[in-house]
């Protein structure tokens, strides 16, 4: 078929072809058909980061980006990358959350022009946020929370017309909040837990679509802009944990869709605006820890959907309306702690209308009157009832025994009288019971033994009388028993000494009598015993010498007689020892001079005689600590008379007598020793069975409220941050009683954090040793978990070893080695169960104010219920450089793996070189480097800081150089023996300890 075209038709057809070609090959169309820029951007991102393994969800688990992101496969198939369906496909989403990424965010991501979602949540990315991200024309979601990003927030991010969500929380961002320019679609701004400064910009009012604002835990100042009341779509507003002052704007009452209002931990003043009563959809109100005054406005009860009402630690006054529970039927948590609220506690009875109520805490107010029996009709879900430190009178209501889910009951510091109702003993789930500082009378019922979950019993300063029931021994998980300043009498029941987990025992100022039995040797973890001012008699039991964890022992003002047992000299951890005002006779045991940590020793007003020992505590003891004894001599600095020569001859005569008596006594002692070993074995089996039945973390220590921890750490301030860890941060703080602590707050967003919390809590709860960090308390709920540990003011060994300002002397390094070896020896060989730490390294060695080293971080510790050579499989193999070689082949842990880590630690202390130092490039490691220099070139590999601290001029001290060389060679020999490749060739910690003690003694002598 033929077609004929006229000239005009040909010209028209040609123009159409030309126009089509121009469109087809225009730059825009060419870009649409070319996705090479996307590939280049992704490769640039990959080049700027590193990763060890993939993320936490099932789809990306164990996927390494370095191996997966290769040009062998289309980039749309790469993990975390999602592309559009157009051709050619373009990257529309990049999701690499929880991928353990390190490095920086490449600015080349701005070339992903079709990108609508960038999610890098929960990694370890550092550096600044690239300003170029603000050029992404389609970006709707930017999620960079929980990284290590620093610097300013790029203003360009607040000038993106497509942005809906920006999440930057939990980083190190600083500077002021950028002023929003064009954010017509923004719904969520979350930049909490950073270091933002300056004022809250009033220009946020431009973002009328905002539903969520979270600027908490920063350093923002100034007042709350009243213009925020114009954000009519707002459902969540958190400005807490800042330094905001002024009054709460009444305009906040315009936010009728608001469900959560968090303004706690600021410096707010004034009264609670009555306009907050307009927030009919409000579910959670946090105004705690401010300076808010006035009364609770009646209009507030219009918030009928309220779940959490938290107004603690303010200056609120006046009564609480009795209709509270009827107005807020969905209330679950009511916290009115530490205000000046007054009136009667009748409003609590109205809370019977709140069927999901879990917590009532009104402690620290001025409530008066009596507690009605209607309290027994409160929610069966109630777990915490705290009304201590008020002016409540009358009796404890019988109905409280109906609250079957109660975990913690605190009514201390009131004016309650009468007997403890027997109905309370029905609270089988109760773990903490505070009834102290009241006027309670009567006896403690034997039914208390039914409360087998109790961890803390605190009834001090009452008028309780009668016998302490023998059923107390049934409370196998009991840790704290405070019954001081009562009128309890009779003997202390034998069953009490069978509670192997007991930590604090305080029975002072009662009327207990009789003897202290040998059974007290069962209390392996006890650290505090106060039996002052009772009527106890007989000899002081030698079983006290078995209490190796004890730090405080007071047996004063009793009727003990006989000699002080030599075994007390084995209490190496004791810091306070008071045996005064008894009838003790004989000499002061010389072993007392070996107690290294005693800072208070009181032996006054006894019948002691003979020479006062010398050294350690006796070098600083005062005369008041020894006065009132009849025939002490020596210690001329205390003006005691010199010892007569006859003392020496008398001692010689006694020695001669022993030559004849000793053989006949020896056979008896051997029999008794065998019998004692048999009994001890039976007791250990019993203790083991008991410990296996204990519940995990919850019962180990009394809970400290979250708000006390927040106060202690200045709202978890960045200024109090001690360490950022893989699963959480550690803050320093001071509790309400002034005790300095370290608070380890777990990041529950990290996989395995809860398991690590339970493991560390479980392990620390079972160990008690001077060279192990002590757990003081825990704080745990569904949204927050923290361990409260003793504070180590000199921080970690790692910071000392590699500090430009601080320097460890040779003796300090040896002391640290010895301290760590003693701690490991306890874990491996002295604890009833063998415990393997699994991650020993300098950052896990903490130093107290006296530079005493203590092992910390038991997050992956393993309890080995088998023999010392058995292995326990684990996926947590510690830290590179300190991991024993066999872990790679067997995947199991043994105590010899800890020994290997200790050996590397010793070598690191001598050389000042990390096992992952860049000088060890794979051809050889730290141990091989030292082997090449040992023993001929030791002085060439030793840390220069040691030499500088020992000598100003080595040439002038050749003798001392030789002594130092021998000492360092001995230490290196220990490190090399401990770090041998074959586990069976390594030393055990029980063999390491005496070697290091010998080395230390040699240093002290020279």
UniProtKB/TrEMBL annotation:
Q: Which SUPFAM superfamilies match?
A: L domain-like (SSF52058), Protein kinase-like (PK-like) (SSF56112), RNI-like (SSF52047)
InterPro entries assigned to the protein according to its UniProt record, in alphabetical order? Kinase-like_dom_sf, Leu-rich_rpt, Leu-rich_rpt_typical-subtyp, LRR_dom_sf, LRR_N_plant-typ, Plant_RL_S/T_kinase, Prot_kinase_dom, Ser-Thr/Tyr_kinase_cat_dom
Reactions the enzyme catalyzes: L-seryl-[protein] + ATP = O-phospho-L-seryl-[protein] + ADP + H(+); L-threonyl-[protein] + ATP = O-phospho-L-threonyl-[protein] + ADP + H(+)
Question: What is the residue range of the signal peptide feature?
Answer: 1-30
MF (Gene Ontology): ATP binding; protein serine/threonine kinase activity
Keyword Nuclease in record: no
Q: What class of enzyme is it?
A: transferase
Q: How does it sit in the membrane?
A: Single-pass membrane protein
Q: Which intervals hold domain Protein kinase? A: 716-996
One matching Pfam family = LRR_1
Q: Which residues cross the membrane?
A: 660-679
Primary location: membrane
Q: What is its EC number?
A: 2.7.11.1
Q: Does the keyword Ion transport feature in the UniProt annotation?
A: no
| Cell compartments where the protein resides | Cell membrane
Task: Give the keywords, sorted.
Answer: ATP-binding, Cell membrane, Glycoprotein, Kinase, Leucine-rich repeat, Membrane, Nucleotide-binding, Phosphoprotein, Receptor, Repeat, Serine/threonine-protein kinase, Signal, Transferase, Transmembrane, Transmembrane helix
A GO cellular-component term linked to this record:
plasma membrane
Which PANTHER family did the record assign? LEUCINE RICH REPEAT FAMILY PROTEIN, EXPRESSED (PTHR48053), RECEPTOR KINASE-LIKE PROTEIN XA21 (PTHR48053:SF47)
What does the similarity note say? Belongs to the protein kinase superfamily. Ser/Thr protein kinase family.
**What is the official name of this protein in its record?**
non-specific serine/threonine protein kinase
| Protein source organism | Iris pallida (Sweet iris)
**Lineage in the entry?**
Eukaryota, Viridiplantae, Streptophyta, Embryophyta, Tracheophyta
């Amino acid at each position: 078929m033929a077609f004929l075209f006229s000239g005009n038709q040909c010209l028209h057809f040609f123009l159409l072809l030309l126009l089509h070609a121009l469109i087809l090959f225009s730059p825009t169309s060419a870009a649409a058909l070319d996705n090479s820029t996307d590939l280049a951007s992704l490769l640039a991102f990959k080049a700027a980061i590193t990763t060890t393994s993939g993320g936490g969800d099932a789809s990306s688990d164990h996927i390494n980006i370095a191996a997966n992101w290769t040009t062998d496969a289309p980039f749309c198939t790469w993990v975390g990358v999602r592309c559009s369906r157009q051709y050619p496909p373009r990257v529309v989403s990049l999701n690499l959350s929880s991928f353990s990424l390190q490095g920086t965010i490449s600015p080349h991501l701005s070339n992903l022009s079709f990108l609508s979602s960038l999610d890098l949540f929960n990694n370890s990315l550092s550096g600044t946020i690239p300003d170029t991200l603000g050029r992404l024309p389609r970006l709707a979601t930017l999620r960079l929370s929980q990284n290590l990003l620093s610097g300013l927030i790029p203003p360009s991010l607040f000038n993106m017309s497509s942005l809906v969500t920006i999440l930057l929380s939990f980083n190190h961002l600083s500077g002021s909040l950028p002023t929003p320019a064009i954010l017509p679609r923004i719904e969520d701004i979350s930049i909490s837990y950073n270091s933002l400064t300056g004022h809250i910009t009033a220009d946020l009012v431009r973002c009328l679509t905002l539903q969520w604002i979270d600027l908490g835990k920063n350093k923002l100042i100034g007042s709350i802009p009243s213009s925020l009341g114009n954000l009519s779509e707002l459902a969540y507003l958190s400005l807490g944990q800042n330094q905001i002052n002024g009054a709460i704007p009444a305009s906040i009452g315009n936010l009728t869709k608001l469900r959560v209002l968090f303004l706690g931990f600021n410096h707010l003043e004034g009264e609670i605006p009555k306009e907050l009563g307009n927030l009919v959809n409000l579910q959670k109100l946090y105004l705690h820890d401010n300076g808010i005054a006035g009364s609770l406005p009646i209009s507030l009860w219009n918030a009928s959907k309220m779940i959490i009402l938290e107004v603690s630690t303010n200056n609120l006054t006046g009564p609480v309306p009795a209709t509270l529970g009827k107005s807020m039927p969905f209330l679950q948590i009511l916290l009115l702690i530490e205000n000046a609220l007054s009136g009667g506690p009748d409003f609590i009875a109205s809370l019977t209308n709140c069927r999901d109520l879990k917590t009532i805490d009104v402690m620290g107010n001025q409530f008066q009157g009596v507690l009605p029996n209607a309290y027994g009709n409160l929610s069966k879900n109630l777990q915490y009832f705290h009304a201590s430190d008020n002016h409540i009178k009358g009796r404890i209501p019988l109905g409280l025994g109906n609250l079957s889910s109660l975990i913690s009951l605190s009514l201390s510091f009131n004016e309650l009288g009468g007997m403890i109702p027997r109905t309370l003993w029905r609270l089988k789930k109760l773990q903490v019971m505070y009834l102290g500082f009241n006027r309670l009378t009567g006896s403690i019922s034997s039914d208390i033994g039914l409360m087998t979950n109790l961890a803390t019993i605190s009834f001090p300063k009452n008028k309780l009388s009668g016998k302490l029931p023998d059923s107390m021994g049934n409370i196998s998980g009991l840790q704290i028993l405070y019954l001081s300043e009562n009128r309890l009498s009779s003997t202390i029941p034998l069953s009490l000494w069978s509670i192997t987990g007991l930590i604090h025992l305080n029975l002072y100022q009662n009327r207990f009598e009789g003897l202290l039995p040998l059974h007290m040797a069962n209390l392996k973890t006890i650290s505090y015993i106060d039996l002052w001012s009772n009527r106890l008699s007989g000899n002081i039991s030698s079983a006290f010498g078995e209490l190796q964890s004890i730090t405080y022992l007071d047996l004063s003002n009793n009727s003990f007689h006989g000699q002080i047992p030599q075994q007390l000299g084995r209490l190496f951890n004791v810091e306070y020892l008071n045996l005064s005002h008894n009838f003790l006779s004989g000499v002061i045991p010389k072993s007392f001079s070996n107690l290294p940590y005693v800072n208070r020793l009181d032996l006054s007003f006894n019948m002691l005689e003979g020479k006062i020992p010398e050294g350690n505590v006796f070098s600083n003891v005062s005369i008041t600590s020894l006065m009132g004894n009849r025939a002490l001599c020596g210690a001329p600095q205390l003006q005691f008379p010199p010892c007569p020569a006859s003392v020496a001859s008398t001692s010689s005569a006694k020695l001669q007598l022993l030559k004849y008596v000793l053989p006949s006594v020896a056979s008896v002692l051997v029999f008794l020793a065998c019998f004692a070993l048999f009994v001890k074995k039976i007791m250990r089996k019993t203790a083991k069975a008991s410990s296996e039945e204990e519940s995990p973390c919850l019962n180990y220590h009394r809970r400290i409220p979250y708000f006390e921890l927040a106060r202690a750490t200045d709202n978890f301030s960045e200024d109090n941050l001690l360490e950022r860890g893989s699963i959480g941060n550690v803050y320093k703080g001071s509790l309400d009683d002034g005790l300095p602590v370290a608070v380890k707050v777990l990041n529950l967003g990290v996989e395995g954090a809860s398991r690590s919390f339970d493991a560390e809590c479980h392990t620390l709860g079972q160990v008690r040793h001077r060279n192990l960090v002590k757990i003081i308390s825990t704080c745990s709920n569904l949204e927050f978990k923290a361990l409260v540990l003793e504070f180590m003011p000199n921080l970690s060994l790692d910071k000392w070893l590699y500090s430009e300002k601080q320097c460890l002397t040779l003796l300090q390094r040896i002391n640290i080695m010895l301290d760590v070896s003693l701690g490991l020896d306890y874990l491996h060989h002295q604890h009833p169960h063998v415990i393997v730490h699994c991650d020993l390294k300098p950052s896990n060695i903490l130093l107290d104010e006296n530079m005493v080293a203590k092992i910390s971080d038991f997050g992956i510790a393993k309890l080995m219920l088998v023999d010392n050579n058995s292995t326990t499989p684990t996926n947590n193999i510690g830290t590179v450089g300190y991991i024993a070689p066999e872990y790679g082949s067997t995947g199991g842990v043994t105590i010899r793996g800890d020994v290997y880590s200790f050996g590397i630690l010793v070598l690191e202390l001598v050389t000042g070189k990390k096992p992952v130092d860049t000088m060890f490039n794979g051809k050889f490691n730290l141990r091989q480097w030292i082997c090449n220099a040992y023993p001929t070139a030791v002085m060439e590999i030793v840390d220069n800081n040691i030499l500088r601290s020992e000598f100003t001029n080595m040439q002038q001290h050749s003798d001392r150089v030789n002594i130092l060389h021998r000492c360092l060679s001995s230490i290196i020999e220990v490190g090399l023996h401990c770090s041998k490749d074959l586990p069976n060739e390594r030393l055990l910690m029980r063999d390491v300890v005496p070697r290091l003690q010998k080395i230390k003694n040699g240093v002290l002598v020279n």
